[in-house]
Here is the input.
Amino acid sequence: MTTDFIDTFARTFEAGGMLMYPLAALAFYLYFSGFNILFSMRRWNFICGSTTRFAEAYSDFLRSNSIGEDGDIKKNFSLLRLKLLSGMAARLSTLKILSSVAPLLGLLGTVCGMCLSIASTGTSPAGIADGISAALITTQAGLVVAIPAWIITMCASAQTQTLLISLARREAELIRGNGI
Here is the structure.
């Protein structure tokens, strides 16, 4: 059963043409980076959700950055946010842009496949069918890459916003003197 799936996948991938390779590379990058960001933000949201876990993490942060516990809270939290979210906006923007490139690669494959079909007109019905097949496969592959990548990116973006809100809440608690 598994070998049948792999054989079918390999034949379909090959039938999609040369644009399947950049689509596969794009999918790998999008999914790997997206899940990396998503799980990192979820981890920090989990830490911020617990008073004891956050107190330990905040103390570790202050120690590792040689900041005293009685320092300026606003400055400390600005540094914490900077350290946690360094480059996050750029990474999320990159993921958003690249997830919109996948359907465009699929569309390019569609155009290339249709050009093959038109070029085969009058010579062989199999050539027409192969061109249409390649067109449909690359279109489908572009959407299969783009839709989950977009969902992962939006979830990671939401987790980042949740982390910012949690950090602001923890900062306000410290400023009011309620402790962490």
The chain has one domain: 2-176. Residues 2-176 form one domain. The chain has a mean pLDDT of 87.
